[in-house]
């Protein structure tokens, strides 16, 4: 999924579209403000690396991933 998000963001930026991240799902979209941020090429440059590091970190084994 993270690779797909990164690809969509990068393609959107490449074709000149403005791409946004909405944090906290639908509620973040309703509340607006700081929950909506414009995506940049740099903001997705390490998406895969960050997730891989988190999954390999023993301190992260307590996390419950949503279904």
UniProtKB/TrEMBL annotation:
| Protein keywords | Kinase, Magnesium, Metal-binding, Transferase
What is any Pfam family matched here? PFK
The residue ranges of the Phosphofructokinase domain are 1-49
What the entry lists under SUPFAM superfamilies is as follows: Phosphofructokinase
Under catalytic activity, the entry for this protein gives:
beta-D-fructose 6-phosphate + ATP = beta-D-fructose 1,6-bisphosphate + ADP + H(+)
Q: Does the keyword Metal-binding apply?
A: yes
Transmembrane parts of this sequence? none
- InterPro entries per record: Phosphofructokinase_dom, PKF_sf
Q: What is this protein called?
A: Phosphofructokinase domain-containing protein
List the source organism: Ilyodon furcidens (goldbreast splitfin)
